[in-house]
Amino acid sequence: MFLKKEDLFCQTRIQANSILERHLFHLTNQLEMFKIIKLHTPIPMYNLFQKSPRRDNYFINPAATNLFVYKTSNMWNKFLKPSSKIDFSSPIALVKGRIKTMLLNAQKAGNTDEWSELNFDGNDMCL
What is d(CA 119, CA 12) in angstroms, rounded to the nearest whole number? Predict the structure, then answer.
């Protein structure tokens, strides 16, 4: 069975939308978490995050749930590398730019003609 150009285009578009949604999710969650920690507002949300006493700029993950605090602290710990120059005194614009760059590099990973699991995998992403 041969695919029409329109079918192939629609399939590629669905994959592109899927990866875009996933990366927008990472961008907005990480940026919001960074703003909460940096600006200490809102206080009730800020109090939910526990910073690690041993490692600066890392968090102690709460019990695994589907909640914002667990997901964002887990992603932050996963993406932040010890050699990273980012900390909570960094400007918000710098962190936003680094997150965008990280996500764009993930989108370029693998075969340039079609989407692959490398585009969705966060193992190689780092701030």
Answer: 13
What pLDDT, in 10s, does the model give residues 8-39?
445 555 556 666 777 788 889 889 999 999 99
Q: Report CA-CA distances (Å) from 7 to 3, 18, 115.
A: 6, 17, 16
91 preceded by a cis bond (ω within 30 of 0): no
- The DSSP secondary structure of 3-59, one letter per residue, reads PPHHHHHHHHHHHHHHHHHHHHHHHHHHHHHHHHHHH--SHHHHTT-EE-SSSTT-E
DSSP codes of every residue in 45-80: HHTT-EE-SSSTT-EE--SS-SSHHHHHHHHHHHH-
CA nearest to 52, candidates 87, 98, 99, 91: 87
What's the number of CA atoms in the CB half-sphere (13 Å) around residue 31?
Answer: 17
Within 8 A by CB and 6+ apart from 59, the residues are: 49, 50, 51, 52, 73, 76, 77
